[in-house]
Amino acid sequence: MRPAYDQEFVDAFDWWLSEKAEWWLEQRASGGPVTLADWTGAVWADSRAQAAWQVAAECTHRLELWKREQAENPSGREPKLDADRGAFAGHFKVLVRDQSVPDHIPWAVPWDELARRKVKVPARVKRIRGKLNVPRERFWTTPDGNYRSVEVP
Q: Has this prediction a pTM greater than 0.85?
């Protein structure tokens, strides 16, 4: 097993998929908003995404098997290789969510000031933007749960 190589491939795939998703949102959906289902379907329609997902799913499976081997007391069922569209959709959802911030949260405003204004800021947003509230996200989420591109002046 080569867990380091597998992890490198998965990381590269995630970067490539993020770039592809951002390009599609900006170029094909005119910046959005778009539903996650429509976005996932559009990205999945590309045969390159399907081919790369097959390899990424295999790498992820090997990584899960390796982690299980390393555990002192492996518990639960052995991970299964799942390279279908549903598994891709789940992976894509997590990838996009981890790079998204609600569009109503202002940037470059100290977190304590936002708290005084009673703006709810999820911990995930603070993790993405850091202690100075710098916009590092790729995507914004709308109040109705759709996604759109970031428009930072």
A: yes
